[in-house]
Amino acid sequence: LAVGVAVAGGGHYAASGYPDPFGADEAYRDVIAEQFSSVTHENQLKWEFVRPTRDEFRFEGADAVIEFAEENGQVVRGHTLLWHSQNPRWLTSGEFTDDEMRALLQEHIATVVGRYKGRIVHWDVANEIFDDSGVLRTEENPFLARFGTDIVADALRWAHEADPDAVLYLNDFNVESIGRKSDAYYALAQELLAQGVPLHGFGVQGHLSTQYPFPDDLEDNLRRFTDLGLEVAITELDVRVPVDAEGKPDDVDVDKQVDYYRRAVGACVAVERCTSLTLWGVTDAYSWVPGFFTGEGSALVLDEDFHAKPAFTAVAEAL
Ligand code: XIL
């Protein structure tokens, strides 16, 4: 089981003008090197960073993380190729024909997956293609809008052509439990596999909150996907808790958080073909949660000063 972390950089850091933590913080780099066997890019491989203009690919940010991983003997998960969010404006508001849109995606996948052939083990090829009701996100995603799930099949084929050894995933949040959204993936996975499309894995992000019940059927859900012949992964685990004005949680929520981490990790460990577990950050100093969820925070296993929280021990023990 690869145990990974998302490496901070770009995204809300870039927007807020903070220095990129990965480049600037030596202690942060040390923790990533020492504690994990896998890394993923929190933002650096997303379209808005790789493809700032139509004519230009920029790989500095992504390359730096991959070179770091290789120096430290870590594997890399690629995130992501086809998504509705963090796309450059030239793509989302450009006036392209269907053929041009298809060609843009094909070029993107061939270029990015091809560049890292043999160096990125897993790819989140398509991310968050269904909404919480299990309906395809045709309004938000410019590719799904035009081509529906056909473009997902094509994206998988193009990624497979560019790197036949890469393990290709569909990935989403709120699919920990069996329900409308994960059922949509289950049905799509069956269809794609029946058509011989190179789909190899299903990723459950695992953005959990102690304000919601723990997804008790997580293990059963993972298992139904492995029963289809896929591998599975928990790809973006964090457990956010309500916090006060100073960003501090109360003891009850800390206990809950420990329990959620233990059970989430335990579910992956219990499923034979759950091959990878990634935490969406390691220190609360660099977490997307406070900026995205009002009144919640403290979601990661190290506090802002890099001290281990009870959740750190829980994860270590559950592995
Ligand atoms: C988040 C990053 O953590 C932020 O830095 C960025 O500003 C927005 O995106 N699901 C995903 C991730 O698949 O790519 C998202 O990452 C979190 C939700």
Topology:
Elements: E1 2-7, H1 11-16, H2 21-24, H3 26-35, E2 38-41, H4 47-50, H5 60-71, E3 75-82, H6 89-92, H7 98-115, E4 122-127, H8 142-147, H9 150-162, E5 167-172, H10 180-194, E6 201-204, E7 207-209, H11 218-226, E8 231-242, H12 251-270, E9 274-279, H13 289-292, E10 296-297, H14 310-318
Parallel strand pairs: 1-2, 1-9, 2-3, 3-4, 4-5, 5-6, 6-8, 7-8, 8-9
Antiparallel strand pairs: 8-10
Helix pairs in contact: 7-9, 12-14
The structure holds (3S,4R)-3-hydroxy-2-oxopiperidin-4-yl beta-D-xylopyranoside (XIL).
Task: Walk me through this protein's architecture.
With 319 residues, the protein is an alpha/beta fold. The chain has a single domain (2-318), classed as TIM Barrel (Alpha-Beta Barrel). It contains 14 helices and 10 strands. Strands 1-2-3-4-5-6-8-9 form an 8-stranded parallel β-barrel, surrounded by 5 helices. Helix 7 runs parallel beside helix 9 and helix 12 (251-270) packs parallel to helix 14. The protein is globular, with a radius of gyration of 19 Å. The termini are close together. The mean pLDDT is 96. It binds (3S,4R)-3-hydroxy-2-oxopiperidin-4-yl beta-D-xylopyranoside. The site of (3S,4R)-3-hydroxy-2-oxopiperidin-4-yl beta-D-xylopyranoside has 9 residues, from helix 1. (3S,4R)-3-hydroxy-2-oxopiperidin-4-yl beta-D-xylopyranoside binds at residues 11-12, 42-43, 127, 173, 205, 236, 288.
